[in-house]
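Hey, sorry to bother you again with one of my protein questions. There's a protein on my desk that I can't quite get my head around. No rush at all, and the record is pasted right below.
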Amino acid sequence: MLLIIFTLAVGALLYYVFMRKNPQSIPEGDGWWGEGDRRASEVDDELIEPFKIEVSEQMIQDLHSRLDNTRFTPSLEGSSFHYGFNSTYLRKLVAYWRNNYDWQKQVEHLNSFPHFRTKIEGIQVHFIHVKPGVRAARPLMMIHGWPGSFYEFYKVIAQLTEPGAQLGGFEVVCPSIPGYGFSEAPRRPGFNSLAAARVFHKLMRRLGLERFYVHGGDWGSLIATNMAQMKPENVKGIHLNFFPVSRLGLQLLPSVILGPYLPSLVGFTRTDVERLFPFVKKNIYAMLRESGYMHIQGTKPDTVGSALNDSPVGLAAYILEKFSSWTSLGFQDLEDGGLDRKFSLDELLTNVMIYWVTGSITSSMRMYKENLGVNPMSRIDAKVGVHVPAGLAAFPNELMHVPLAWAKQKYKRIVSYSYMSRGGHFAAFEEPQMIVDDLVRFVQCVEKSD
Protein backbone atom coordinates (compact mmCIF):
# COMPACT_ATOMS: atom_id res chain seq x y z
CA MET A 1 0.00 0.00 0.00
CA LEU A 2 2.82 2.42 0.89
CA LEU A 3 4.47 1.65 -2.46
CA ILE A 4 1.23 2.43 -4.30
CA ILE A 5 0.80 5.71 -2.41
CA PHE A 6 4.42 6.66 -3.08
CA THR A 7 4.07 5.84 -6.78
CA LEU A 8 0.87 7.89 -7.06
CA ALA A 9 2.48 10.81 -5.24
CA VAL A 10 5.55 10.78 -7.50
CA GLY A 11 3.33 10.49 -10.57
CA ALA A 12 1.20 13.42 -9.43
CA LEU A 13 4.31 15.50 -8.79
CA LEU A 14 5.77 14.73 -12.22
CA TYR A 15 2.44 15.52 -13.88
CA TYR A 16 2.30 18.83 -12.05
CA VAL A 17 5.86 19.73 -13.01
CA PHE A 18 5.75 18.71 -16.67
CA MET A 19 2.08 18.68 -17.72
CA ARG A 20 0.45 21.57 -15.89
CA LYS A 21 -0.96 24.21 -18.18
CA ASN A 22 0.76 27.55 -18.23
CA PRO A 23 -0.75 30.78 -19.53
CA GLN A 24 -0.32 31.41 -23.25
CA SER A 25 0.33 35.14 -23.03
CA ILE A 26 1.30 37.92 -20.63
CA PRO A 27 -1.18 40.68 -19.72
CA GLU A 28 -0.02 44.00 -21.12
CA GLY A 29 -1.07 46.04 -18.11
CA ASP A 30 -0.01 49.64 -17.70
CA GLY A 31 2.61 51.67 -15.88
CA TRP A 32 3.87 55.12 -14.93
CA TRP A 33 7.56 55.98 -14.74
CA GLY A 34 7.44 59.76 -14.68
CA GLU A 35 8.12 62.06 -11.78
CA GLY A 36 5.54 61.96 -8.99
CA ASP A 37 2.26 60.07 -8.96
CA ARG A 38 0.17 59.82 -12.07
CA ARG A 39 -3.04 61.81 -11.78
CA ALA A 40 -6.21 59.85 -12.53
CA SER A 41 -7.05 62.06 -15.51
CA GLU A 42 -3.50 62.27 -16.84
CA VAL A 43 -2.74 60.69 -20.21
CA ASP A 44 0.42 60.71 -22.27
CA ASP A 45 0.80 63.39 -24.89
CA GLU A 46 1.13 61.22 -28.00
CA LEU A 47 3.05 63.87 -29.92
CA ILE A 48 6.07 62.49 -31.76
CA GLU A 49 8.79 65.11 -32.13
CA PRO A 50 11.93 65.08 -34.28
CA PHE A 51 15.07 64.86 -32.19
CA LYS A 52 18.62 65.85 -33.00
CA ILE A 53 21.70 64.84 -31.04
CA GLU A 54 23.46 67.96 -29.83
CA VAL A 55 26.12 68.29 -27.16
CA SER A 56 27.41 71.58 -25.80
CA GLU A 57 31.00 72.65 -26.21
CA GLN A 58 31.13 73.08 -22.43
CA MET A 59 30.48 69.36 -21.96
CA ILE A 60 33.25 68.45 -24.40
CA GLN A 61 35.67 70.79 -22.65
CA ASP A 62 34.77 69.17 -19.34
CA LEU A 63 35.40 65.75 -20.88
CA HIS A 64 38.82 66.84 -22.12
CA SER A 65 39.71 68.20 -18.69
CA ARG A 66 38.80 64.89 -17.06
CA LEU A 67 40.79 62.94 -19.65
CA ASP A 68 43.81 65.18 -19.05
CA ASN A 69 43.65 64.59 -15.30
CA THR A 70 43.18 60.84 -15.30
CA ARG A 71 44.93 58.95 -12.52
CA PHE A 72 46.04 55.63 -14.00
CA THR A 73 46.83 52.43 -12.09
CA PRO A 74 49.87 50.43 -13.31
CA SER A 75 49.00 47.02 -14.77
CA LEU A 76 50.63 43.83 -13.59
CA GLU A 77 53.40 42.62 -15.88
CA GLY A 78 52.18 40.17 -18.47
CA SER A 79 48.56 40.36 -17.24
CA SER A 80 47.08 41.42 -20.61
CA PHE A 81 43.28 41.64 -20.09
CA HIS A 82 43.00 38.85 -17.49
CA TYR A 83 42.59 41.34 -14.65
CA GLY A 84 40.25 43.56 -16.62
CA PHE A 85 41.15 46.46 -18.87
CA ASN A 86 44.93 46.69 -19.18
CA SER A 87 45.98 50.18 -18.06
CA THR A 88 48.98 50.29 -20.39
CA TYR A 89 46.65 50.04 -23.34
CA LEU A 90 44.14 52.28 -21.57
CA ARG A 91 46.69 55.10 -21.71
CA LYS A 92 46.91 54.68 -25.48
CA LEU A 93 43.13 54.63 -25.81
CA VAL A 94 42.75 57.79 -23.76
CA ALA A 95 45.45 59.55 -25.80
CA TYR A 96 43.55 58.70 -28.98
CA TRP A 97 40.26 59.81 -27.42
CA ARG A 98 41.74 63.13 -26.33
CA ASN A 99 43.78 63.97 -29.43
CA ASN A 100 42.36 62.13 -32.45
CA TYR A 101 38.74 61.22 -31.84
CA ASP A 102 36.38 63.64 -33.64
CA TRP A 103 33.10 63.76 -31.73
CA GLN A 104 31.47 66.28 -34.06
CA LYS A 105 32.11 63.98 -37.01
CA GLN A 106 30.48 61.13 -35.09
CA VAL A 107 27.50 63.34 -34.19
CA GLU A 108 26.96 64.01 -37.90
CA HIS A 109 27.02 60.27 -38.49
CA LEU A 110 24.62 59.60 -35.62
CA ASN A 111 22.23 62.23 -36.97
CA SER A 112 22.31 60.72 -40.46
CA PHE A 113 19.22 58.66 -39.54
CA PRO A 114 15.98 60.37 -38.43
CA HIS A 115 15.66 60.51 -34.62
CA PHE A 116 12.48 61.11 -32.63
CA ARG A 117 11.19 61.24 -29.08
CA THR A 118 7.74 60.69 -27.65
CA LYS A 119 6.38 60.44 -24.11
CA ILE A 120 5.13 57.01 -23.04
CA GLU A 121 4.09 56.19 -19.47
CA GLY A 122 5.47 59.50 -18.26
CA ILE A 123 8.99 59.34 -19.78
CA GLN A 124 10.51 60.43 -23.07
CA VAL A 125 11.40 57.50 -25.32
CA HIS A 126 14.05 58.05 -27.99
CA PHE A 127 14.02 56.08 -31.23
CA ILE A 128 15.30 56.00 -34.79
CA HIS A 129 12.70 55.48 -37.51
CA VAL A 130 14.01 54.78 -41.00
CA LYS A 131 11.67 54.13 -43.92
CA PRO A 132 12.94 52.74 -47.22
CA GLY A 133 11.62 54.09 -50.48
CA VAL A 134 8.98 51.36 -50.91
CA ARG A 135 5.47 51.23 -49.52
CA ALA A 136 5.31 47.54 -48.73
CA ALA A 137 8.36 47.47 -46.46
CA ARG A 138 8.12 45.11 -43.50
CA PRO A 139 8.12 46.86 -40.11
CA LEU A 140 10.99 45.74 -37.89
CA MET A 141 11.94 46.81 -34.37
CA MET A 142 15.57 46.32 -33.35
CA ILE A 143 16.42 46.37 -29.63
CA HIS A 144 19.90 46.72 -28.11
CA GLY A 145 21.21 45.61 -24.72
CA TRP A 146 23.93 46.53 -22.22
CA PRO A 147 26.53 47.99 -22.57
CA GLY A 148 25.44 48.70 -26.12
CA SER A 149 23.11 51.25 -27.64
CA PHE A 150 21.02 52.00 -30.71
CA TYR A 151 24.33 52.76 -32.44
CA GLU A 152 25.14 49.03 -32.61
CA PHE A 153 22.60 48.68 -35.41
CA TYR A 154 23.74 51.48 -37.73
CA LYS A 155 25.41 49.22 -40.30
CA VAL A 156 22.48 46.81 -40.20
CA ILE A 157 19.91 49.59 -40.58
CA ALA A 158 21.77 50.97 -43.57
CA GLN A 159 21.64 47.59 -45.33
CA LEU A 160 17.99 46.94 -44.48
CA THR A 161 16.73 50.32 -45.69
CA GLU A 162 18.97 51.23 -48.63
CA PRO A 163 17.71 51.12 -52.23
CA GLY A 164 17.82 47.57 -53.52
CA ALA A 165 17.77 46.07 -50.02
CA GLN A 166 16.87 42.40 -49.69
CA LEU A 167 13.12 41.62 -49.69
CA GLY A 168 12.46 45.19 -50.77
CA GLY A 169 13.71 46.62 -47.50
CA PHE A 170 12.46 47.03 -43.96
CA GLU A 171 10.90 49.94 -42.09
CA VAL A 172 13.17 49.98 -39.05
CA VAL A 173 12.29 51.33 -35.62
CA CYS A 174 15.27 51.27 -33.26
CA PRO A 175 14.54 52.60 -29.75
CA SER A 176 16.78 53.31 -26.82
CA ILE A 177 15.64 51.31 -23.80
CA PRO A 178 14.38 53.77 -21.15
CA GLY A 179 17.35 54.58 -18.94
CA TYR A 180 19.76 54.17 -21.87
CA GLY A 181 21.16 56.90 -24.11
CA PHE A 182 18.67 59.54 -25.12
CA SER A 183 15.62 57.83 -23.61
CA GLU A 184 14.63 59.26 -20.25
CA ALA A 185 15.31 57.13 -17.18
CA PRO A 186 12.40 55.78 -15.11
CA ARG A 187 11.92 57.77 -11.91
CA ARG A 188 10.78 54.85 -9.73
CA PRO A 189 11.80 51.22 -9.15
CA GLY A 190 10.38 48.32 -11.14
CA PHE A 191 11.16 49.10 -14.78
CA ASN A 192 12.09 45.63 -16.02
CA SER A 193 12.00 43.88 -19.41
CA LEU A 194 8.21 43.43 -19.17
CA ALA A 195 7.74 47.17 -18.71
CA ALA A 196 10.08 47.84 -21.65
CA ALA A 197 8.11 45.38 -23.80
CA ARG A 198 4.86 47.18 -22.99
CA VAL A 199 6.37 50.61 -23.70
CA PHE A 200 7.70 49.40 -27.07
CA HIS A 201 4.31 47.93 -28.01
CA LYS A 202 2.78 51.32 -27.28
CA LEU A 203 5.46 52.96 -29.41
CA MET A 204 4.70 50.71 -32.39
CA ARG A 205 0.96 51.36 -32.05
CA ARG A 206 1.62 55.07 -31.88
CA LEU A 207 3.54 54.78 -35.16
CA GLY A 208 0.61 52.92 -36.72
CA LEU A 209 2.55 49.67 -37.06
CA GLU A 210 0.19 46.90 -35.98
CA ARG A 211 2.12 43.86 -37.24
CA PHE A 212 5.90 43.74 -37.14
CA TYR A 213 9.05 41.69 -36.61
CA VAL A 214 11.41 42.20 -33.68
CA HIS A 215 15.15 41.57 -33.48
CA GLY A 216 17.10 41.62 -30.24
CA GLY A 217 20.35 40.75 -28.52
CA ASP A 218 21.30 40.83 -24.83
CA TRP A 219 18.45 42.60 -22.94
CA GLY A 220 16.93 43.26 -26.33
CA SER A 221 16.40 39.53 -26.79
CA LEU A 222 14.47 39.27 -23.51
CA ILE A 223 12.42 42.36 -24.33
CA ALA A 224 11.66 40.96 -27.81
CA THR A 225 10.67 37.65 -26.22
CA ASN A 226 8.39 39.46 -23.77
CA MET A 227 6.81 41.44 -26.61
CA ALA A 228 5.97 38.17 -28.36
CA GLN A 229 4.53 36.73 -25.15
CA MET A 230 2.55 39.89 -24.40
CA LYS A 231 0.92 40.59 -27.77
CA PRO A 232 1.51 37.60 -30.07
CA GLU A 233 -1.16 38.88 -32.44
CA ASN A 234 1.03 41.91 -33.21
CA VAL A 235 4.44 40.24 -33.45
CA LYS A 236 4.96 38.42 -36.75
CA GLY A 237 8.19 36.85 -35.53
CA ILE A 238 11.25 37.41 -33.38
CA HIS A 239 14.88 37.05 -34.45
CA LEU A 240 17.43 36.68 -31.65
CA ASN A 241 21.18 36.29 -31.35
CA PHE A 242 21.03 35.67 -27.58
CA PHE A 243 18.45 33.28 -26.16
CA PRO A 244 19.25 31.76 -22.77
CA VAL A 245 16.59 29.41 -21.44
CA SER A 246 15.93 29.52 -17.70
CA ARG A 247 13.40 26.74 -17.01
CA LEU A 248 15.04 23.50 -18.12
CA GLY A 249 15.48 22.00 -14.66
CA LEU A 250 15.67 18.20 -14.59
CA GLN A 251 15.45 18.09 -18.39
CA LEU A 252 18.98 19.49 -18.56
CA LEU A 253 20.64 16.63 -16.69
CA PRO A 254 20.33 13.83 -19.31
CA SER A 255 21.62 16.21 -21.99
CA VAL A 256 24.68 17.13 -19.95
CA ILE A 257 25.46 13.50 -19.05
CA LEU A 258 24.76 11.84 -22.41
CA GLY A 259 25.46 14.74 -24.76
CA PRO A 260 29.22 14.19 -25.25
CA TYR A 261 28.76 10.47 -25.95
CA LEU A 262 25.31 10.07 -27.54
CA PRO A 263 24.52 13.55 -28.86
CA SER A 264 21.78 12.49 -31.29
CA LEU A 265 19.93 10.76 -28.45
CA VAL A 266 19.42 14.10 -26.68
CA GLY A 267 18.94 16.15 -29.85
CA PHE A 268 22.47 17.58 -30.05
CA THR A 269 24.55 18.07 -33.17
CA ARG A 270 28.33 17.79 -33.40
CA THR A 271 28.51 21.60 -33.28
CA ASP A 272 26.49 21.63 -30.05
CA VAL A 273 28.96 19.21 -28.50
CA GLU A 274 31.94 21.31 -29.58
CA ARG A 275 30.45 24.48 -28.13
CA LEU A 276 29.03 23.01 -24.90
CA PHE A 277 31.64 20.60 -23.63
CA PRO A 278 33.48 20.21 -21.37
CA PHE A 279 30.33 21.53 -19.70
CA VAL A 280 31.69 22.69 -16.36
CA LYS A 281 34.61 24.54 -17.95
CA LYS A 282 32.59 26.28 -20.68
CA ASN A 283 29.28 26.91 -18.91
CA ILE A 284 29.95 27.17 -15.20
CA TYR A 285 33.57 28.18 -14.68
CA ALA A 286 33.58 30.56 -17.66
CA MET A 287 30.31 32.17 -16.57
CA LEU A 288 31.57 32.62 -13.00
CA ARG A 289 34.65 34.40 -14.33
CA GLU A 290 32.64 36.66 -16.63
CA SER A 291 29.55 37.44 -14.54
CA GLY A 292 30.99 39.50 -11.67
CA TYR A 293 29.55 42.66 -13.20
CA MET A 294 26.11 41.03 -13.17
CA HIS A 295 26.21 40.44 -9.42
CA ILE A 296 27.16 44.07 -8.82
CA GLN A 297 24.57 45.51 -11.18
CA GLY A 298 21.92 43.07 -10.02
CA THR A 299 22.31 44.17 -6.40
CA LYS A 300 23.86 47.65 -5.99
CA PRO A 301 24.06 49.32 -9.42
CA ASP A 302 23.98 52.86 -8.07
CA THR A 303 27.20 52.38 -6.10
CA VAL A 304 29.46 51.55 -9.03
CA GLY A 305 27.36 53.86 -11.22
CA SER A 306 28.37 56.86 -9.09
CA ALA A 307 32.03 56.21 -9.92
CA LEU A 308 31.52 55.49 -13.61
CA ASN A 309 29.32 58.54 -14.15
CA ASP A 310 32.10 60.75 -12.75
CA SER A 311 35.06 59.31 -14.68
CA PRO A 312 35.02 59.01 -18.48
CA VAL A 313 38.13 56.81 -18.38
CA GLY A 314 36.61 54.53 -15.76
CA LEU A 315 33.44 54.37 -17.86
CA ALA A 316 35.37 53.48 -21.01
CA ALA A 317 37.39 50.79 -19.23
CA TYR A 318 34.25 49.25 -17.70
CA ILE A 319 32.31 49.19 -20.97
CA LEU A 320 35.08 48.32 -23.42
CA GLU A 321 36.38 45.42 -21.34
CA LYS A 322 33.06 43.76 -22.26
CA PHE A 323 33.61 44.49 -25.93
CA SER A 324 36.88 42.59 -25.59
CA SER A 325 35.91 39.46 -23.67
CA TRP A 326 32.35 39.16 -25.02
CA THR A 327 33.62 39.30 -28.58
CA SER A 328 36.08 36.49 -27.83
CA LEU A 329 37.30 35.15 -24.50
CA GLY A 330 40.64 34.52 -26.21
CA PHE A 331 41.15 38.28 -26.51
CA GLN A 332 41.99 38.34 -22.79
CA ASP A 333 45.42 36.98 -23.75
CA LEU A 334 46.19 40.11 -25.80
CA GLU A 335 47.75 43.32 -24.48
CA ASP A 336 45.18 45.41 -26.36
CA GLY A 337 42.26 43.08 -25.61
CA GLY A 338 41.76 42.55 -29.34
CA LEU A 339 39.51 45.60 -29.40
CA ASP A 340 40.53 46.72 -32.87
CA ARG A 341 40.18 43.23 -34.37
CA LYS A 342 36.46 43.68 -35.00
CA PHE A 343 35.76 47.33 -34.23
CA SER A 344 37.40 50.67 -34.87
CA LEU A 345 38.33 52.87 -31.93
CA ASP A 346 35.94 55.51 -33.26
CA GLU A 347 33.05 53.02 -33.14
CA LEU A 348 33.89 51.90 -29.63
CA LEU A 349 34.35 55.42 -28.30
CA THR A 350 31.12 56.61 -29.91
CA ASN A 351 29.21 53.98 -27.99
CA VAL A 352 30.98 55.09 -24.79
CA MET A 353 30.20 58.74 -25.59
CA ILE A 354 26.48 57.98 -25.82
CA TYR A 355 26.63 56.85 -22.20
CA TRP A 356 28.86 59.75 -21.15
CA VAL A 357 27.01 62.70 -22.68
CA THR A 358 23.64 61.39 -21.47
CA GLY A 359 24.87 60.40 -18.00
CA SER A 360 22.97 57.15 -18.40
CA ILE A 361 25.36 54.48 -17.13
CA THR A 362 23.73 54.17 -13.70
CA SER A 363 20.16 54.01 -14.99
CA SER A 364 21.21 51.52 -17.68
CA MET A 365 22.70 49.18 -15.08
CA ARG A 366 19.50 49.25 -13.03
CA MET A 367 17.96 46.96 -15.63
CA TYR A 368 19.91 44.14 -13.96
CA LYS A 369 18.54 44.97 -10.51
CA GLU A 370 14.99 45.19 -11.82
CA ASN A 371 15.17 41.84 -13.63
CA LEU A 372 17.42 39.86 -11.29
CA GLY A 373 16.14 41.25 -7.99
CA VAL A 374 13.39 38.62 -7.97
CA ASN A 375 13.47 34.88 -8.54
CA PRO A 376 13.53 34.58 -12.35
CA MET A 377 11.65 31.28 -12.11
CA SER A 378 8.69 33.00 -10.45
CA ARG A 379 8.24 35.66 -13.13
CA ILE A 380 5.23 35.24 -15.34
CA ASP A 381 7.33 35.28 -18.52
CA ALA A 382 9.26 32.22 -17.28
CA LYS A 383 5.97 30.29 -17.28
CA VAL A 384 4.79 31.38 -20.73
CA GLY A 385 6.06 29.86 -23.95
CA VAL A 386 6.73 31.86 -27.09
CA HIS A 387 4.27 30.86 -29.79
CA VAL A 388 5.17 33.28 -32.58
CA PRO A 389 7.75 32.22 -35.19
CA ALA A 390 11.30 32.51 -33.89
CA GLY A 391 14.64 32.66 -35.67
CA LEU A 392 17.72 31.97 -33.57
CA ALA A 393 21.28 32.83 -34.60
CA ALA A 394 23.86 30.98 -32.46
CA PHE A 395 27.21 32.75 -32.61
CA PRO A 396 30.27 30.66 -31.66
CA ASN A 397 31.81 33.20 -29.26
CA GLU A 398 28.62 33.92 -27.36
CA LEU A 399 29.14 33.42 -23.63
CA MET A 400 26.45 30.75 -23.46
CA HIS A 401 25.54 28.25 -26.17
CA VAL A 402 21.93 27.09 -26.25
CA PRO A 403 21.27 24.08 -28.51
CA LEU A 404 18.08 23.89 -30.54
CA ALA A 405 16.87 21.03 -28.32
CA TRP A 406 16.99 23.34 -25.29
CA ALA A 407 15.63 26.41 -27.08
CA LYS A 408 12.49 24.48 -28.08
CA GLN A 409 11.46 24.35 -24.44
CA LYS A 410 10.82 28.11 -24.56
CA TYR A 411 10.36 28.94 -28.23
CA LYS A 412 7.60 26.71 -29.59
CA ARG A 413 7.74 27.72 -33.28
CA ILE A 414 11.40 27.91 -34.24
CA VAL A 415 11.46 28.24 -38.02
CA SER A 416 15.21 28.86 -38.36
CA TYR A 417 18.20 28.01 -36.19
CA SER A 418 21.60 28.98 -37.56
CA TYR A 419 25.07 28.01 -36.40
CA MET A 420 26.94 31.18 -37.28
CA SER A 421 30.53 30.64 -38.40
CA ARG A 422 32.07 33.51 -36.42
CA GLY A 423 31.15 36.31 -34.07
CA GLY A 424 30.28 36.95 -30.45
CA HIS A 425 27.84 38.79 -28.22
CA PHE A 426 27.63 42.12 -30.07
CA ALA A 427 26.62 40.42 -33.30
CA ALA A 428 25.00 43.32 -35.16
CA PHE A 429 27.94 45.60 -34.33
CA GLU A 430 30.58 42.99 -35.09
CA GLU A 431 29.09 41.03 -38.01
CA PRO A 432 26.34 43.19 -39.55
CA GLN A 433 26.23 41.31 -42.86
CA MET A 434 25.74 37.99 -41.10
CA ILE A 435 22.87 39.39 -39.03
CA VAL A 436 21.22 40.89 -42.11
CA ASP A 437 21.47 37.66 -44.10
CA ASP A 438 20.16 35.50 -41.25
CA LEU A 439 17.33 37.92 -40.51
CA VAL A 440 16.29 37.90 -44.15
CA ARG A 441 16.36 34.07 -44.25
CA PHE A 442 14.21 33.99 -41.13
CA VAL A 443 11.61 36.34 -42.61
CA GLN A 444 11.51 34.28 -45.78
CA CYS A 445 10.90 31.12 -43.71
CA VAL A 446 8.09 32.82 -41.80
CA GLU A 447 6.35 34.11 -44.90
CA LYS A 448 6.80 30.86 -46.79
CA SER A 449 5.06 28.98 -43.97
CA ASP A 450 2.14 31.44 -43.69
